[in-house]
Amino acid sequence: MTEIDLTPLDKAHAEMEANTADDNARLRFYERLADAELFLLLEKEPENEKISPEVFEVQDHSFVLVFDTVDRLAEFVGKPAPYVALSGRVVAGMLAPSGIGLGVNLEVAPSSILIPAEAMGWLVDTLGNAPDEVEARMSEFTAPAGLPETLVTSLDAKLSTAVGLAKWAYLVGTVQENGTRSHMIGFVSAVDGAQSALAKAVSEALTFSGIEAGALDVGFFDSNDPVAAQLARVGLRFDLPEPEKPTEYVQVAPGSDPDKPPILR
Q1: Where are the domains of the chain?
Q2: Within 10 A of 204 (CB to CB), how many other CB atoms are there?
Q3: Which pairing describes strands 61-67 and 101-104: parallel, antiparallel, or unpaired?
Q4: What's the confidence (pLDDT) of residue 59?
Q5: DSSP for 12-55?
Q6: 220-230 burial by CB neighbour count: b if 16+ within 10 A, else e?
Q7: How high is the pLDDT of residue 212?
Q8: Disulfide-capable partner of 41 in 65, 218, 228, 248 (CB 3.0 to 4.6 Å)?
Q9: Which residues contact 160 (CB under 8 A, 6 or more apart)?
Q10: Do residues 129 and 213 touch, judged by C-beta distance below 8 A?
Q11: According to the model, what pLDDT value does residue 28 have?
Q12: CATH of region 138-239
C-alpha cells in the first residue's frame, strides 16, 4: 500500500503505533475515528430506522465491524453484504451502553484494530465534554500567543467539518475586566441552533490535542457586532466551509441524522 492509498485513519493509527507512550498520538487516533465516516457491516438490510449489525465473538467478547471505505468492507466479506454508513461518534454512542466493542478495518488495512467496549464508553464521555460559553466582560482582545501548534492544527481540521454552521471563527487572546488573561474562539454569524455543535467541536479539538478544556472560551457574535470587527483585527481567522447547493433529492440513510441515530436490534 502506497502513501497515497492510506486513509486519515491509517495515518493516525500508524502514528499511534509508532508512539505508544504518547497520549496525544492516541487521542488523535480516536479523534479521527470519531470524525470518520464508517461503514458498519449488517446482518441484513436496514428496516425503517432499525439496523442489525453483524456481531462477532472474539475471546468471549462481542464486536461489530466497521471499515473506513466500502472497498475494504467488500474485501473483508468477499461477497455483497448489507451495510450502513455512520459517523464514528454515532457508532460509539450506539455501542457504549451495549457492552460491545468495535473492530476497525480488520485484516484489510494497516489500521486493523480491535477496540474494547470500555473504550467506546470513554470515547462517548470524552465527546460529551463542552467548554463554557464566555460570559465575562472583556476589556481587550489580543493576538493569540503561547498556544501549542497541535491545538491550532486540530481546530483547523475540526472546523473544516462544520459545514455551513457559521461564516468565520477567530482565535484571539482575551483580557477580562478583572485582568484575567485567556484565549477565546469567537464565531461570527453562527446559524440558529448551531452554537452547541460548534462548542462541542471546539471541545473535541481541545480534548484530542491533550489540552485542558478551560484553556479556551467560546463566544458567538453577529457580523454587525463591534466585537466581530475587533476579533478580525487581531485574531487568527478560520473560514468555515459553505454547504454545497443540493442538485438532487437523496434519501436519508439510517443514522445520518445525528439527532436521530439508528436503533440496534
Answers
A1: 3-127, 138-239
A2: 25
A3: parallel
A4: 82
A5: HHHHHHHTTT-HHHHHHHHHHHHHSEEEEEBSS--BTTEE-B-E
A6: bbeeeeebbeb
A7: 60
A8: 65
A9: 240, 241
A10: yes
A11: 87
A12: 3.30.300
CATH architecture designation of domain 3-127: 3-Layer(aba) Sandwich (3.40)
Instruction: Confirm if 20 and 34 have CB atoms less than 8 A apart.
Output: no
Instruction: Tell me the C-alpha distance between 108 and 83, whole Å.
Output: 17
Q: Give dist(CA 98, CA 130) in Å, integer.
A: 24
pLDDT at 170: 96
Could you give the CA distance from residue 204 to residue 129 in angstroms, rounded to a whole number?
Answer: 8
Residues 6+ away with beta carbon under 8 Å from 264: 50, 51, 52, 53, 94, 98
